[in-house]
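User: Second chain of the day. Same drill as before.
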Amino acid sequence: MEVLLVVLPIAIPIIIILILGLVIFFKVRNFLRRSGASTIIRAAANHIEQNGGEIPQPVVSVSDLSAAYIPSIKRDFPQMSYELMENMAKGGICKILESIEARNTNLLDKDTFSQSLIKQVYGEIAGLGGDRKYDNIKIHKAGITSYSNQGESSRAVFEIALQYQYTGTLKTGAKVNNKLVQAGYRVTLLNNQKLYDDGETTVSANCKNCGAPLSLKGSNKFCPYCGTAFQEVADKVWQVSKYEQFA
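Assistant: Same format as last time:
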């Protein structure tokens, strides 16, 4: 009896603490189940395990105003679909990164990329402090952020969020190897009816019958000089003219 009297004052607080601990545990577990947080935690843990312990970065957000601009693009270029323009922008940034990695601007064909863009990439390659690698490029989202039609010149700017495994030097100066990077790029597509880029002729559209220059805007499909029907080739005079990383 004396032993029991000595043990009880010590055991009772311990039992109370254990009970409170169990109550808190079950409440937290139920909350996680209801909120879905446990699913997020498991997904993050799986991602970290699959990427060698690297914490996943948030995907870059893009300013997507496609719904506002698509009607104008369809009106100005009925044969140039928005989907084709978006694919051109996405394919363009992938090709640019490939060119930088290979240190070779010859990968940028002159029908798709303007002379000014090729010069821009050439200058970046010339200023590289070391090799860069962009492996496993994955595009998360792309959207048009601005569109303008000023007479003979039209311009569409896309923002693209993507990720890649990066090897090279970061903006901070740190060197990394196969680091998962989330990045955002702006890619500008240009349609110039004067068909000039920095004073150099880049592409032309002429009537196959009389050789007269053809306007590729609007719905007209006949040569205004001889009346010959022509196939719409609006995509041939859209070029990737500029790019920049914004995130």
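The chain has a mean pLDDT of 77.

User: Great, on to the next one.
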